[in-house]
Specification:
By secondary structure, the chain is an alpha/beta fold. It is built from twelve helices and eight strands. The two termini are about 20 Å apart.
Length: about 325
Amino acid sequence: MTSDLLDRVRRMPMGLDVVVSGPAPARLPGEGRLGAGVHRLIGRGTGEYLFVGVRGNGAAGTAAARPAGPAGPGGPGGPGALRGAVASGAPGVRAPRDVFLDPGDICFYDADRPPVPVFPEPSRLKVFLVPRESLGIDERDVRQVMATPVARTSRLGTLLSPFLSELADMASASRPSVGEMLAWNAVNLLATLATEQLGRDATGIPDAQSPLLSRILTFIEAHLADADLCPETIAAAQHISVRYLHKLFQDEGTTVGRWIQRRRLEECRRDLLLHVRGRQTIAAVAGRWGFLSATHFSRVFRAAYGMSPSQWRDTAGRGCAVG
């Protein structure tokens, strides 16, 4: 991120940064440099564009190793130059094609390999930089949502585009207490947007699930805080065998135990952020969501999010303190 390209950068809780650009910036904010493997985002009119830069996709080292190239006709942004190009650091993987956008569209991109923006002057970019883990998606998901911008004229775009635009403006001048609320709302909206683009429901299971699986997931949500929630109790409540229960989750690419743990971790992570000011103990938060051992909770939390529960809570606290 270079200061000559940006008007305002606001650090917020939940690892969220909100960036409002100056007119016609030469690059999008991100950790990597421009290189031969990046694609172009091309604006089809003057106005305002919204972006979600997803951090933590493991490409920064490769991208940063390449010198920054020009965005003009002679560089990687030249007409047709990127079509069919092979992405650096991923043999056999094709680089994304150029993406064309209209004012008000919402577009995801990999902040570790930021694409080249090509927008007519005067245009303004509003960018939400957010960790991939906060959106609940993996690297493969990022590549998928990058290829499908949310049109301003779509059902979701009509609702979210003006809201996110106003939120970006509010973030630059809001008090810390308000910033915490804005960050929480923004990240949850962006996570919902990502899951919608991926064709999933709010739980992360694909939409084309069976009615039985829907009932099972509803039962799990209702009893997530029960420490004795297990495959046996779930199967008994649904009048099916434990073996068939496991098969239903296996068909969705996961297991009952992993699903319960994932959902409990998500709720704990949310509570750690919401109660950062009250400093509720980590053990209390873990216990509320069915973790009987604080040591086990800390271990699986670190494995899932790359930091300990206390580090996550402290990061949120520092974000809230930024004026």
